[in-house]
Design brief:
7 strands; 13% strand; alpha/beta; Rossmann fold
Length: 246
Amino acid sequence: MESKKTVLVTGASRGIGKETAKLFAHNGYNVAINYRRSAEEAEKLHEQLLSEGCRVIKARADVSRRDQVDDMVSEILERFGGIDVLVNNAGVAQQKLFQDISADDWDLIFDVNARGTFNCCQSVLPSMIRNKRGKIINISSVWGLTGASCEVHYSAAKAAVIGLTKALAKELGPSNIQVNCVAPGIIRTDMNSNLDALTIEELKSATPLGVLGTPRDAAELIFFLASDRANFITGQVISPNGGFVI
């Protein structure tokens, strides 16, 4: 049976976001594919899903810009009538020694990872609160739990996403809105494409399951948290990481 629910996936043109958008689309959701710069990748995904009979739209917006987020949300509401699930996946990372991080670097990482999550949550909430239901899944990182050397600003921003998730879940519980966080371990995505073969093997060796995660691994967890099977789960941080961090 086709679902009439709608999901907005930010940063959906590739990696975890792309797999998440595909999974929701193939399960009958209306899907809004958010992207900022990756227009070609977003168009390919859009055309692929349309050819498979899915209901999808492209939604270009820089999540760090509130005006663009509000315009995007208004477009989705006009097209689909509501937003039942928000997946805050858009993010950027950077590796630098702490003393080399500039104020602009710090602002960039926080603007996309933390402010972007804030903007999207606040923009979709009026519709969710009005309907007395909704699911928000924020994507953090294992480094938001443990911290990572040479990624202090990224770790701090992803830790902020975790704090936002826990607090917002308490605030929105009375409105029947569940807010949870997925904090993936090492996943084979473009964000990690700069890692050399030796580093990849070291990370595999440090992972009890002996493999790195795939975008699909994270997408499956996101989809579960968005489902009715997770209605009593809120304010939680779940880290699919193969045992890398326990």
